[in-house]
């Protein structure tokens, strides 16, 4: 196995792990939206800072994902990240 192939495989696996963690952050952010925790909590602030830009982007570009107050933007992001992850893993 060449060094380039090894570096590519390592890079794809790193991206896979980052995607996996971000999907969990999105899921946690969705649950937090139901329970409304203390907004001054540092963990809550981190999760919101990490996920709000992506969620806001989807809500802005795809306003139809908010149905009668039900926000489906986390699902759009999760499906998109899963698609990207499966595509990248198929390359190695």
Describe this protein's structure.
The structure is a single chain. By secondary structure, the protein is mainly α. It has one domain (3-91). The protein has helices spanning 3-35, 42-61, 73-91, and strands spanning 66-67, 70-71. It has a two-stranded antiparallel sheet with strand order 1-2. β1 (66-67) and β2 (70-71) form a beta hairpin. The two termini are 12 Å apart. The mean pLDDT is 95.
Q: DSSP helix count?
A: 3
How many discrete domains? Answer: 1
- Cα-based radius of gyration, to the nearest Å: 16 Å
The major beta sheet can be summarized as:
2 strands, antiparallel
User: What is the count of β-strands?
Assistant: 2
- The fraction of residues in strands falls at under 5%
Mean pLDDT: 95
Low-confidence stretches: none
Shape estimate: elongated
User: Helices and strands, in N-to-C order?
Assistant: HHEEH
* Structural class designation: mainly alpha
Cα end-to-end separation: 12 Å
Helix content: over 70%
Lateral arrangement of strands in the main beta sheet: 1-2
Question: Helices and strands in order, then pairings?
Answer:
Layout: H1 3-35, H2 42-61, E1 66-67, E2 70-71, H3 73-91
Antiparallel strand pairs: 1-2
